[in-house]
Design goal:
Blueprint (H helix, E strand, L loop, with lengths): L2 H12 L13 E6 L2 E7 L8 H7 L11 E6 L11 H7 L4 E6 L9 H8 L3 E4 L3 H7 L1 H9 L3 E8 L4 E3 L18 H13 L2 E5 H7 L14 E5 L18 E5 L9 E5 L6 H11 L4 E6 L1 H9 L5 E6 L8 E2 L6 E8 L2 E7 L3
Parallel strand pairs: 3-4, 4-5, 6-12, 6-13, 8-9, 8-12, 9-10, 10-11
Antiparallel strand pairs: 1-2, 1-3, 7-14, 13-16, 15-16
Length: 349
């Protein structure tokens, strides 16, 4: 029995739920009978069935379940939410062995699923490919473990170290981005947007670029737009305030909420990063892609509140402009997009 191989398959199929299952974790499950996989399942979009339910339901001959082993990336739930507890379903079908990648830190589970299974006589193994499972569930685990969203920083930088040219206030009437990377790298950014629940930028970036912050060149849900606008300087006709998708605006000046736009008043003189994370936790935002600009990015870097950083290095040179943020992290991967390079860093802390 190759437990690691089956758990790797669980992780692989779980990725089918990326960006679709939140606030539920994207779990993968396989059921093995006499050395062969007889069923697979991953978490359905939020409100639908969990991975274990999808796997068990797909088994035509349910009698085989009583002699099978169920593998799952995350501890089966033990509480009633949108669906009944998965642990109860496993017990009802008398599956004798359950192999779990990692424990669920959510307070309504947190070992209770394992306890239910053991009390029912199941043989439970925990920790198979645990590091890989925790990496897969990094958003969910960070949100429930650290009580804040999983933070991904992202910016593009020229060969000579600039993230933008110098802007003039007069440019506000013709706001548009100054592209550093090629179209392949920009398409990949839309893939990133589809994977994270929220996308955050500051006032200057909105005024300079008038971005839509949606998913255009990839398939997936638009992220929740999160805007920092201390004194509400962003013109109301800008795209981020068009109510097209859910939008959160952090400000010191309260404005009436609209259908999809919520204004959240915070004190910008205190620890702003902590205040933002606390409010996003209350809003149940599990992951955030922070796209800049420099002041916003550097604030999270200086507060050491970030988990990954994605730095796109373009093939251009600006000679002068706005210097890129400074970050110290572990370089874990490089991806080439033609002449552009994506450098991926992880926070070692």
């Amino acid at each position: 029995m190759n437990a690691s191989l089956y758990m790797q398959r669980c992780i692989q199929i779980a990725k089918n739920g990326l960006g679709q299952t939140r606030p539920n974790p994207m779990v993968g499950c396989v059921i093995v009978y006499e050395g062969s996989i007889i069923a697979e399942g991953f978490t359905s979009p939020y409100g639908g069935s969990h991975a274990e339910v999808n796997a068990i339901t797909s088994v035509k001959n349910k009698a085989l379940l009583e002699k099978s082993t169920l593998y799952v990336t995350l501890e089966p739930c033990a509480h009633y939410g949108k669906t009944p507890p998965c642990a109860n379903l496993i017990i009802a079908h008398k599956i004798p062995r359950v192999v779990i990648g990692t424990i669920d830190p959510f307070s309504k589970v947190a070992g209770k699923g394992i306890q239910l299974l053991k009390e029912a006589g199941c043989e439970v193994t925990v920790g198979v490919l645990e590091e890989a499972c925790r990496e897969h569930h990094k958003r969910f685990l960070t949100f429930h473990g650290k009580k804040r969203p999983f933070i991904v920083l992202k910016w593009a930088v020229s060969q000579d170290g600039f993230i933008d040219v110098l802007r003039e206030e007069t440019e506000i009437e013709d706001a548009k981005p100054n592209w550093i990377t090629n179209r392949y790298a920009r398409q990949y950014v839309h893939k990133l947007r589809a994977e994270e629940q929220g996308i955050l930028i500051g006032t200057n970036t909105v005024i300079n670029d008038n971005p839509a912050l949606n998913v255009r060149n990839w398939s997936g849900q638009d992220p929740v737009r999160i805007i920092l606008d201390k004194t509400l300087r962003i013109p109301v006709n800008y795209t981020v305030l068009n109510d097209a998708v859910k939008t959160l605006v952090f400000t010191e000046v309260k404005r009436m909420d609209t259908e999809n736009t919520k204004y959240i008043k915070i004190d910008f003189s205190r620890n702003i990063v902590r205040a933002i994370c606390e409010e996003l936790y209350r809003e149940n935002i599990q992951s955030v892609l922070i796209e800049g600009g420099k002041q916003t990015l550097q604030s999270f870097i200086d507060a050491n509140v970030w988990d990954e950083a994605l730095v796109f290095v373009g093939a251009c040179n600006f000679k002068k402009g706005l210097q890129a943020p400074r970050i110290h992290g572990a370089l874990v991967e490089e991806i080439n997009f033609g002449d552009d390079v994506l450098k991926k860093y992880k926070n070692p802390c």
